[in-house]
Amino acid sequence: MLVLIGMLACALSLATTVSRASGTGARALATEARVHTLGRRIATLQRTTWRWQRLMGVPLTQTEGRTLAEMNVHDITGAVELWRRRAATAEARAHHPPHLRAWLCIHRYEGSWTDASAPYYGGLQMDLSFQRRYGERLLRTKGTADHWLRLEQIWVAERAHRSGRGFYPWPNTARACGLI
Fold it and tell me: HSE on the CB side for 153, CA within 13 Å?
């Protein structure tokens, strides 16, 4: 009988250990899945932030350089929130170009945002050399300006303005808008 009680205690102890180990394993798997999900969210927010920053022609925000493996769940959650704020800030800034009213006035005298009439394309009537110089990435990925979003066309024009060209690529319409 004593042997039977000893074997029963041993079996119970083993069952408890297995139960704890499987609980620990389940928690580890759940944590790993959460880290993976949060990591994907960070990557998405980084791409969003950098897309808006590229459009505006500003330097891309750098990462801290730490990998997810070097961070705990709390730190990773904080990184998600940080990149969420960065993406929201970049998007808000991109939707308010510095000379928006001026570009909209110029557009009123130019073509449709989807105007594909060569040699000038889009709502600000950009020729190919202008697009190559100030919107190379968009030209390569989307084609001519008539395929770009209105905001993309405006930011390309803003890049030309920042480079020192001002509103002079649109001499007649800029004059009509009182810009030169």
Answer: 27
Domain with CATH 1.10.530.10 in the chain: 100-176
Looking at domain 100-176, which of 1.10.260.40, 3.30.470.20, 3.40.50.720, 1.10.530.10 is its CATH number? 1.10.530.10
Q: Which two tokens stand for residue 42?
A: 């960070």
Please report, for residues 37, 60, 107, 133, the alpha-carbon distance to residue 126 in angstroms, rounded to integers and kept in the order given.
42, 26, 11, 11
Question: In terms of DSSP H, where are the helices of 95-162?
Answer: 100-109, 128-134, 136-142, 150-160
User: pLDDT digits over 136-163, tens only?
Assistant: 999 999 999 999 999 999 999 999 999 9
